[in-house]
Design brief:
This protein is α+β, with helices and mostly antiparallel strands. It has helices at residues 20-30, 100-103, 127-148; strands spanning 10-17, 41-48, 54-64, 69-76, 82-89. It has a single domain (10-148), classed as Enolase-like, domain 1, CATH 3.30.390. Strand 3 and strand 4 form a beta hairpin.
């Protein structure tokens, strides 16, 4: 986690329960269901700096690929902008989703434009690429719905990555 936030001195694990109504809202916006094990609880990490204040958020994500889970980690700054992303583990044959050029497509993007993530990549589609895009959008929608709350979502309408 300090790979993304090298100035972090500590972190706090936060677990947000997902109610049935929240799950319905999330899944409707995504256009697909949450995976088993992700339907009841959303977990993230608040990274803290020297003074104990939150300097960013880490989300450890997983999404189903062709040969199992694609696990990746990404960080959001306090404005909700993706600071960095890296793949932690995957068993996919095609490895293009691990390329820095692909992952960098999402760095600097935020909650408000994640509906456009599918159109960012012009290379060959693969289950790994799809898993990273779907997983990233899924985690951002969950974060917005469960953590940021609010009546007016930054991510407008339904999203179908």
């Amino acid at each position: 986690m300090t790979r993304i936030f090298p100035d972090a001195r500590d972190y706090k694990t936060v677990s947000a329960p997902i109610s049935g109504n929240q799950r319905k809202i999330i899944e409707q916006r995504l256009g697909f269901g949450l995976l088993p094990g992700q339907q009841d609880l959303f977990q993230y990490f608040e990274m803290t700096g020297d003074t104990g204040g939150v300097i960013g958020t880490i989300i450890a994500a997983s999404q189903k690929g062709e040969y199992g889970a694609v696990e990746f980690v990404f960080g959001l700054d306090n404005s909700g902008v993706i600071k960095d992303i890296y793949v932690q583990r995957a068993r996919e044959r095609s490895q293009s989703f691990k390329d820095r050029a692909f992952l960098d497509l999402f760095v600097g993007r935020s909650l408000s434009n994640c509906a456009d993530f599918t159109g960012l990549y012009s290379g060959e589609a693969s289950p790994g690429v799809t898993a990273v895009i779907r997983g990233l959008v899924k985690e951002l929608v969950c974060y917005e719905t469960l953590v940021l709350g609010g009546d007016e979502p930054a991510i407008k309408g339904e999203i179908h990555p």
